[in-house]
Design goal:
By secondary structure, this protein is α/β, with parallel strands linked by helices. The protein has one domain: 3-Layer(aba) Sandwich (Rossmann fold). The chain has a 7-stranded parallel sheet, sandwiched between helices. β1, α1 and β2 form a beta-alpha-beta unit. α1 crosses α7 and α3 runs parallel beside α4. The longest helix is centred in the middle third of the chain and has 29 residues. The radius of gyration is 17 Å and the shape is globular. InterPro entries: KR_dom, NAD(P)-bd_dom_sf, SDR_fam. It holds the Pfam family adh_short. One of its GO terms (molecular function) is oxidoreductase activity. Keywords: Oxidoreductase. Belongs to the short-chain dehydrogenases/reductases (SDR) family.
Amino acid sequence: MGFNVEGCVALVTGANRGIGRTIVDQLLAAGAQKVYAAVRQIDSADPLVDAHGSKVAPVRIDLTDAESIKAAADEASDVHLVVNNAGVLKTADPLDPTAIDALQTEMEVNVYGLLRMAQAFAPVLKANGGGAFVQLNSIASMRSFPAFATYCASKAAAYSITQALKVVLADQGTQVLSVHPGPIDTDMGEEAGLKDIAEPPTLVGEGIIAALSTGDYHLFPDSMAKDLEAKYASFAQSVIEG
């Protein structure tokens, strides 16, 4: 199975900045017909509309708001590709007094938001021939970093859900891709103190387009991620993808 983005209609959450905005740019450069730029505040997508005109259609999605996601699925009923990129990171180690609140926030967005997106858009993808569903996870889904322990826990849960989606969505012909970046040069990466080791977000968008075309399930787009991939590959191939 492989998915070609050329001519497709896509939807990208968190499309107004960082990795999300870069993915929108790269999908259109690769020949996507239209991209729904899913954002919490519609006017935050104005720069994308200015850059790409009618090829970008802003749509409101808040991953904590199930009704906004259902309404977006009704509006974007022609979608072939969903890229669930939006997420939230809090800095909290397990003993931090804010850790429970941080984890609750991250689970609400990073995990329950993923479930809401999958449940709302799976029927849309099925109706349009299957298509593809891309989930932005992280190397943090596979290894805990103490300073971001709650974020890592939420991404581990999201990765687990993504594995289940791979199986259940295969029945309707929907390809699933789990993306695991390391430090990427975005506002989130800078806020986490990772700017000095971060790599360009273009690696993620380019990797997604290539991995979709070859039907891969995992994507490790940057240097740190590829180092992890080399150690994880045999387990992934025999257990996760087997």
